[in-house]
Amino acid sequence: NLATHRCCIAMLRQLGRVAAPLARGAPRRMTGNLLLVRMLSARVDFGNLKVDANLAALVRDEIAPGTGVDATAFWASFDKVMSDLGPKNAALLKKRDDLQKKIDEWHLAHKGAPVDIAEYKAFLTDIGYLVPPKTDFNVGTTNVDPEIASVPGPQLVCPIDNARFILNAANARWGSLLDALYGTDVISKEGGAEPGKAYNPVRGAKVFDELHRLLDEFFPLAGGSYGEATAFAVKDGKLSVTINGQETGLKTPAQFAGFNEDKGAVSSVLLKNNGLHFDILIDKEHPVGKAHKAGVRDVVAESAMSAIADCEDSVAAVDAEDKITCYRNWNGLMRGTLSASMDKGGKSVVRGMNPDRVYTTPSGGSLTLPGRVVLLVRNVGFHIYTDAVMHNGEQVPEHFLDAFVTTLCSKNDFIERPGLKNSRTGSMYIVKPKMHGPEEVALATELFDRTEEAMGLAKNTLKMGIMDEERRTSTNLGACMYEAKDRVAFINTGFLDRTGDEIHTSFEAGPFLPKDEIKKQVWIKGYEDNNVDTGIAVKLSGRGQIGKGMWAAPDNMKQMLKEKIGHPMAGANTAWTPSPTAATLHALHYHRCDVFARQEEIAKRPMAKVEDILTIPLLSRKLNAEEVQRELDNNIQGLLGYVVRWVGQGVGCSKVPDIHDVQLMEDRATLRISSQHIANWLAHGITNKDQVMETMYKMAAVVDQQNAKDPNYVPMAPKFDGIEFQAACDMIFLGKETPNGLTEATLIRKRREHKAANKTVNVTIEPAPKAMNQ
């Protein structure tokens, strides 16, 4: 009860175990070794496990019912997996550290000399970092949904802890082209076409000009233009379009996929190109349709094919409370029942998951198209441990817990029940981040085997996505895929994390180039090409996704339309977008590019060389003072701008203004690359601690100003003693010693410290265990 609770808190304070909740702006500095703040909660015993009581209740009362899996048996299986596989996880993390130590020593022994790639490659082979190349096999993954295997298109990545955001992502399968064009910079403001609160008919006319142009490009008529159309009809199973009193049809009649009617008149026309659909909506009574000669009120484009519900880089989940939110939302998605309340036009509305779309086929049959994306879930990496479940008094690998709980949730998608479905082939898709080499992929495969056994699922129900974002995975990608050859359904690349690991792996080799120059070096092209080349060589094409990274500027859609076609042209059948609107626009690139035809062309080129991937992007010239300061300003402003929201507000992914006030969609990878880059320059004398701290103070004031309108924001200046500022300092000044340059340990520790300081809870503050390598 409350009296007992207060008494316990008082006693703990007296013992010096818990600091009193700190007032905003009060000093929060903590001295001594790295600390872990552990939230105390009620626990439920299951064998060797002590499970957070609320998590146990979630599994028992909300997730397990209807799955045929008994909650007690679920935890018994997890207990056994921890005993069997937990030591393997720890051993693999130790191997990371051992390899890094040997690489550091090699670079120190060769200090000042150019890296001899042949000698370097031989060394990496000798220590087991490089394994023999392997592409002499075919991926055997089966029962993959077409959205993953055979229909190229955009992919969203969305924090799973925000129900509204993840619902928007789930429903991003279809998007209004009218809205996407009208509301973005794709349509210029010139000539009185500025967007505003009220509909601007001048801008609307420009939008329809572009819509007509796109229709003419992707679905050309046998004669005339869509801009001249005055009526749409279906006659004898064919699309009829009236232009200047004459009827015409599609140049390629097979592109007509279906239609709907209302009161005897065609109300929608479904067209198909490269596996993707456009739906022309017609309503002459609609305010927009009234202004169009043929009554067109919108063109809805099939947009995102898939979306990753993210438990990792885009969330700030640091304890059982946060993990419960993630798991509850994933369970709602898998049951098809997730909903969220939101304000729209001053009214509260409840948003749920979109139903499927039904059409009449040209031959008079029925066609049902999914109303939602196919969802994948990204679990956390091997290096993160959680106290949401304790095994023999020790924290458990969080990715073990993620695999078990998210799979149990997904079993709700497999059972016979009414309502919406995610996978139509009976598969679940788990993306595995930050794995280092084939041995870690092998453990993930073993974990999936054991998870299926515990849940009563057929072998290979769980499909694996392999994030190609760590150097030891990039250089051994074929061997990694071989370890999951009957499960792998996704590989992709990502510049930020991959560069962060590049810097940390080669930290002692010397100072790195400025970040923008790193992007232009031979290693990055080798890395990007190798991902596609390997995927094609092992026949992943047609069985899974070969992906490319994020367009980070959600407000710069005109530039995205110009540049991001490079991803499908590079052979990727999916690429990440920062919003549903961006997905609708990026989908246009897949109409312009036949990805599978491009992959056939790419297959004829020589495969990327591992020697190129191993070429370290080191600085070979002397930077002037202005160049150094400009790079520090950019790195530190971005780092602070993200960390204040992660640590201070528990927001893992949001639009963060850069140093030029350009809004960028950032996640945790931002911190890794920036902190490692600064730490590398500190270690090699490009900058010094005084300059870094002066820049920290200056950029903190900039970030404070950028967040001045946020009522929940606590300024860093002028005291610079807040937990958020400390977190940024730790990531930089401890960056050299931080395993793999990963930032999670610091972020989790500081976020939990912040939660403890800003609400009255039971906590213990104790020295961080060695596992905070994790």
What does the model show?
The two termini are 36 Å apart. The protein has 774 residues and is α/β, with parallel strands linked by helices. The protein contains 26 helices and 28 strands. Helices cover 42% and strands 19% of the residues. The chain has an 8-stranded parallel β-barrel with strand order 4-13-18-21-22-23-24-25, surrounded by 6 helices. Strands 5-12-11-10-9 form a 5-stranded antiparallel beta sheet. A 4-stranded antiparallel beta sheet has the order 2-3-19-20. Residues 1-39 and 760-774 have low confidence and may be disordered.
Please provide the count of β strands: 28
- Tell me about the biggest sheet? 8 strands, parallel, barrel
Beta content comes to 15-25%
User: Helical element count?
Assistant: 26
3D shape = globular
Please state the structural category: alpha/beta
What oligomerization state is this entry in?
single chain
Q: Which runs of at least 5 residues are low in confidence (pLDDT < 50)?
A: 1-39, 760-774
pLDDT averaged residue by residue: 93
Instruction: Specify the helix fraction band.
Output: 40-55%
Our Rg estimate from Cα atoms comes to 27 Å
User: How are the strands of the largest sheet arranged?
Assistant: 4-13-18-21-22-23-24-25
Question: What are its keywords?
Answer:
eight-stranded parallel beta barrel; disordered C terminus; 26 helices; alpha/beta; single chain; five-stranded antiparallel sheet; 19% strand
